[in-house]
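so my prof wants the structure for this chain in the tokens format not the other one, which i didnt know existed until like an hour ago. anyway here's the sequence
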Amino acid sequence: MRARVNPMQELLRTNDFVRLSWLQALLASAGIEVVVLDTYTSVMEGSIGAIQRRLMVRDEDEERARRVMKEAGEVA
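here's what i got, hopefully its the right format
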């Protein structure tokens, strides 16, 4: 059996720290674990906005996460 190359899915990319924090809290309250990628890379480049942070969820949580976000008025 072949291992999955990318067991996580990207919900969105953003430099908006407030929105990212709110989405993390929203999804956590729905029991969906999230991972934010590129946080340190973004900080290292001086936070000029060239590298956005990526909000990721497990494959099996993607559909539910998108539904929770949509119900909250967020489009991913």
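also thought this was worth mentioning. The chain has a mean pLDDT of 86.
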